[in-house]
Structure formats: C-alpha cells, structure tokens
Design goal:
The protein is α+β, with helices and mostly antiparallel strands and 197 residues long. The protein has a single domain, classed as 2-Layer Sandwich (Beta Polymerase, domain 2), CATH 3.30.460.10. It has 6 helices and 5 strands. It has a 5-stranded mixed beta sheet with strand order 1-2-5-4-3. The radius of gyration is 18 Å and the shape is flat. Bound molecules: ligand 0O2. Ligand 0O2 binds next to helix 2 and helix 5.
Amino acid sequence: MNLMLKYNMAMEVLCNDIDTLIKEYVNKNNYNPVNHIEHRIKTLKSAYDKLEKKGYELTDDNLFTQIRDMVGYRIICNFLSEVEDVVKLIESSKQLRIISRKDYITHPKDSGYLSYHLIVEVPIYLSTGIEYITAEIQIRTLAMNFWAALDHKIQYKFPGEEIPTEVADELYDISVKARDLDTRMVELNEIMNKYKD
Ligand code: 0O2
C-alpha cells in the first residue's frame, strides 16, 4: 500500500485519539489545557532532504524507518504548567505507544529551541491486520511556538548555510526571554486563580 496513504490514516487515528483525550480531560476538569493544535504530513521533498542530510540512501525503506516525523502533530498550550498535563494525557492513551521522548524544555537546544517531543507509534487498522506508524508529537507553549515559527522563517532565508552569528545570538536571547515570559505567565495564572469564582 502507498506509504503516504498510511501516513494519512495514522494522522486520522492520532487526531481522533487526542481529540477524545482532550474532551475527556475538559469534561473531568472543566478546563482546557490546549490553546490550539497544528498538524501536517511532511512532504516527500522535505523527507528526502532530511534523509540526505542524515546520510541515508533515498529509499522508501529508509523513509519509513529513519524519518520519524512524517506524521507531525503539535499541541500548543497557554501555560508552561499545562505542557506537563498534556504529556500525561498522551501517556494515558490506550492506543498510542510512546517509544521515545526529548525534553527540549528542561534541556533547550543550542539554537534556543524549546519544546517537548514524544515519538509515538500509531496503530492503523488494515484488512491485513494492525500496522504501527511512527509519529512525532510536539508539545509547547504559545511563547515557544512563536519563537519556533520565527526561527523557522529565518532558517528559510539561509538554505543550507549557517545562520549569521548576530542573528543566531539574537534568536537565542529571544528564546531566553520566551522562557522568562512563560515563567511569569504561570505566576500570573496562579495569582488569577485566587480570584476564581
Ligand atoms: P520540520 O520543518 O518540522 O519538518 P531524530 O531522528 O529524531 O534524532 P530530528 O528529527 O532532527 O532527528 O530530531 P529533532 O532535533 O528532535 O527535531 C525534530 C523537529 O523538531 C524538527 O523537524 C523541527 O520541527 C523541530 N525542531 C528541532 N530543532 C529546531 C530548531 O532549532 N528550530 C525550530 N524552529 N524547530 C526545531 P524537522 O524535520 O527538522 O523540521
């Protein structure tokens, strides 16, 4: 079966599963930890570029085994404290199997990139049986998302080259400020909670 079709099926299962988990959470806690969700299937061009960069031959087999974010799902929270809630929510899924995780919030990348990543296996139900497709779930705050979008845009301006040092330094500094903003937003939320009801 066509690989892209399998990725699309996995995306559908992932969307439905996370949607159900969030609805249950909202029903139980009367509050939604998610600001919004973004998702995409990686284009073949972008996947082959990534394979090439990693030094692999451009084959379907390598695409399937080496590119773990063909199915990419991103959950954006308002507050830093909600990122942990969302991670726990995904851990509670009966369908998704978490195979690895990267905590770029506790350990930001050198670029300043902040996000929590889960690599999961998503079951797709075929007439021949269940197959598992790998997907990447990124969980981050609005401030982290703002920084990542800006960084992504800047990277496009320098295809295949290093970002100039003055740009990279400024980006890193903005990332530190984004972290500070997230901490202060949590503090503000705690103050606001005193005024609930
Ligand atoms: P895009 O544009 O999202 O498709 P791995 O095989 O898991 O070890 P990988 O996939 O490079 O190697 O892992 P990593 O570093 O965790 O990055 C996975 C994804 O995180 C990237 O996918 C980006 O979406 C995001 N990411 C990581 N570092 C940065 C960064 O410095 N800036 C921004 N804006 N995003 C980052 P892709 O395929 O690289 O990109």
